[in-house]
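Illustration: Farnesyl pyrophosphate synthase.
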Amino acid sequence: MMKITEVGLTLEAITSLDEFTEERYNDIARQKMGFYLFNFTTTMGTLLAERQDLMISDIAGRVFEQLAILYTIQNDYMDCYGENITGKKGADIQEGQCTWLIISALKRATITQKHILKNSYGSHNANDVNKVKKIYDELGIRNEYEATVSECFQRTTTEIDNICNEDVRKFCEMLVKIFFRID
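Result:
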């Protein structure tokens, strides 16, 4: 499992701004968080409980992938906009990380905005960071975030509805409540 997580970390480290795509981002999320956070912990729990009958099905695996992507998107969003909530000042922009926000911005940006993003993203200069955030605001990235989370929720709940084993389905429903912050 650690090697799979290391693959995700390596993918993230070697990806340059020109290579930031949704496909690459999802690969990073699946490799970095999917196995470590969901598949590994669930597999270990079922083995320790001697409930191999609850082993991860392909459908549950797809649910875990969706949750890993959602978790990564939420983490990226909070890194940029969550300082008032988390108290943590994020540094993804300064570090030039492959995030959902920059990928979304690059897909929607004008030529001028892309030029600014390419010159400012990955800079530790506060003015450059503010330029990136300003472009995020101009492009409506916050609204796109809400729409993306909603779409992810729909895909995930559809996958869960297809899980035959009731215990596994309930477990996945519980995870959805946690990650989508549903009461």
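Reading the tokens back as a structure: The chain has one domain: 2-179.
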